[in-house]
Amino acid sequence: MTKERVTGPRSGRSHWTTRRWLRAGVAVTLAVLTVLGSLGVWAITRTSQVTDELVDYRSPALEQAVRLESALVDQETGVRGYGLTGERSFLAPYPKGVADERAAARRLRELVRGDARGREDLTTVQRLAGRWRERLARPVSEAGADRAVAVASDRADEGKRLFDAVRRAAQRQQEHLSEGQSEARAELRRSTGLRNVSLAVIGGVIVLVAGLVFEGLRRGVTTPLAHLGRAAREVAGGRFDRPIDGTGPADLRQLAADVEAMRGRLVEELEYSERARQLLDERAGELRRSNTELEQFAYVASHDLQEPLRKVSSFTQLLQRRYGGQLDERADQYIGFAVDGANRMQVLINDLLAFSRVGRVHHDHTTVDLEEVMQRVLDALSVSIEESGAGIEHDPLPTVLGDATQLGILWQNLLSNSVKFRTPGQPPRIRVSVARAGDDWRFAVTDDGIGIAPEFREKVFVLFQRLHTRDAYPGTGIGLAMCKKVVEFHGGTIAVDPGHTPGTRIVFTLPAVDAREGERS
Hints:
Elements: H1 2-7, H2 18-85, H3 93-111, H4 116-142, H5 145-154, H6 156-236, H7 250-323, H8 329-357, E1 366-369, H9 370-380, H10 382-388, E2 391-394, E3 399-402, H11 404-420, E4 429-437, E5 440-447, H12 479-489, E6 494-496, E7 504-511, H13 513-520
Parallel strand pairs: 2-4
Antiparallel strand pairs: 1-3, 4-5, 5-7, 6-7
Helix pairs in contact: 2-3, 2-4, 2-5, 2-6, 3-4, 4-5, 4-6, 6-7, 7-8, 9-11, 11-12
């Protein structure tokens, strides 16, 4: 009913979804920005073109025109000085001016290549300059000192008239180039103004669009979502009977309807979960009581079996000592079986008793120096180490939080296994390494013994699991199971390293002291 109420037709509500509103808004915005962007790009491009024309052509052309006139003036000065004095040194500016004129004319012709009037002005200046050189400059410069003065004096009026024409042509050329430069600057100002207006309009449109987008999102998205969020938080706070309705676009109203349906389903699931939790609490309480009774039974059974088992062992051993050799061979064999069985049963009960005590008897964590624990274990195993010729080395061991007795059991089982399961005929080599791994210490006990097959790497940590016969390797199959229980009691993990061959590497972790202190704080 809620979903029909939210999504059904209602007067005054739009059927447009948020995606449709966004698509329409983005399309309109892109169209406007495309038009304005095109105008702005054109204005920027035109500004760049005018700037390039002004910088690369107009201004350099005017500069070269001035240099051209200056070179012609240098020529006239040199010729006039030589013609008046007859001194050859006064003629020095003439050849330099000719060279400067050619360079300036060549560069100027390149710059006005696209300007017909500029080319015409340059041609006029060069033609008049050539006429002046032909009528006055060359005859004077090529004549001797005495002859040069006479030629200059005879042609003074003609030379002045010709050079004045050159000056007027050069000035017209500069005026035309200056007009072109002014026009380019005016065009640059117009283009820059158009560019600035275009960019300002684009900026205004962007601000307007941003405002419209913000307002649209506020009305169409954030406000409906805030309303939906408040309702959802009220439901999350415990008001499961609070109905959730939606506002805004059609898809947000549909979302509200889906949340309302989910609320109804959650109410049903919570009622079911509450019933299941109560049942689970009852079962958990029964399981805790059962585990406690089982632990107590294992401890009591192991402890109470010690006395009758000691009697059986003592009398069978006494029977073996007193009547050994007096009966037939089969009787001696039977007595040996009874003694061996009683001894193995006593070892098994002791191991079971120790296994049941892990985490129950010694459960107070204190600071434990593993170096001291390792030294005690090595002293306890000194006989088997000496008999096997084992070589044991270890890294400096850290201090951890735990139970010293249980950690001693851990090291004793791991090292005794490495000594026991050595390669026949070869003294075992055992190394204990340690490294910091985050909040844990990572230990590795590595040996060069017979190893563990891949299919048994998980099985060896199960209680009473043996991989070899008692005749080959004595034991009860509890050692590694006890190691696992000790490590897990201390908050670590233990496993066989699958990548190590030959031999065996047992890897386990123990939380570091600083990590445990951080948890407590």
